[in-house]
Amino acid sequence: MTIIASLLRDAQLPESPTARLDAELLLAAALGKNRSYLRTWPERIVNSEAAQLFASYLQRRRLGEPVAYILGQQGFWSLDLEVAPHTLIPRPETELLVELALACVPQPEARTLDLGTGTGAIALALGRERAGWEVVGVDRVEDAVALAERNRERLGLTNVSIRASHWFSALQGERFDLIVSNPPYIRQQDPHLSAGDVRFEPASALVSGSDGLDDIRQIIAAAPEHLLAGGWLLLEHGYDQAAQVRELLARHGFEQIESREDLSGHERVTLGRLPC
């Protein structure tokens, strides 16, 4: 006889920095329950089918596969999103990008673009918070476009549209009040690419040239042609890239340039505004 408490006690995930949380999420999913159920009913018996499923989840996690990919879902902002290995896993630090976007453009109606939308996390969070905004999310990966569209449909966000586009390639002549992006920004030789959950995420969504700034350069150079006067550009970037991003924004005519720190104290998002 196997009970919830013993399964959690015996779960071994030595390589995970969040082993207890991982085990709880995986067991709750195997049982079809939420995590509070595990704490409320620790002596409940787990049937053999659920125990075997939990064991298979644990083995995948021991091999390094992210919990989000094992379960096919991840929370972001106020949303529960479907995720898959062809998209990045939405991370808590990216919520700073959403917070700043909402603060920069407080008006109830605006036209907003999310470049490299992936799961649709940023676009959908903005659409949820601003029902009067028209939000466009684009991605060059067909599977990502399909995934983001499934998330949009499930959430019922009719003010958000998902399109296929490599950055601005399919947006000729369109302008926006706000452009946001969490683009690839990791250096090609960065040792973090071979460690942790990142090993399982798509390199095309992570790596951007020898200094990690190739895509950011491209976005900043093209953004003025797609922003309305007074429009904002907000970019997530690496912890040590803020000064370079500020310089790039200034070089392309942006004003009111500043960088904001994430919860770890790293300059994570840099923003700039076109002159009015």
Taking pLDDT < 50 over at least 5 consecutive residues as the criterion, the unreliable ranges are none
CA-to-CA gap between the ends?
Answer: 70 Å
Cross-sheet strand order for the largest sheet: 5-4-3-6-7-9-8
Secondary structure tally: strands: 9
CATH superfamily of the largest domain: Vaccinia Virus protein VP39
Number of helices: 10
Number of domains: 2
What's the level 1 CATH class of the largest domain? Alpha Beta
Largest sheet: 7 strands, mixed
**Content-based structural category:** alpha/beta
Compute the gyration radius: what is it? 20 Å
Task: Walk me through what this model shows.
The protein has 276 residues and is of the alpha/beta class. The strands form two sheets. The chain has a seven-stranded mixed beta sheet with strand order 5-4-3-6-7-9-8, sandwiched between helices. The longest helix has 15 residues, at 48-62. The protein has two domains: 4-64, Helicase, Ruva Protein, domain 3; 77-273, Rossmann fold. Helix content is 36%, strand content 20%. The chain has helices spanning 4-10, 19-31, 35-40, 48-62, 67-71, 95-104, 121-129, 142-155, 214-222, 242-251; strands spanning 73-76, 79-82, 111-115, 134-139, 160-164, 176-181, 227-236, 255-261, 267-273. It has ten helices and nine strands. It is elongated. The model has no long low-confidence stretch (mean pLDDT 91).
Features:
elongated, 10 helices, 2 domains, Rossmann fold, two-stranded antiparallel ribbon, Helicase, Ruva Protein, domain 3
Summed up:
With 276 residues, the protein is α/β, with parallel strands linked by helices.
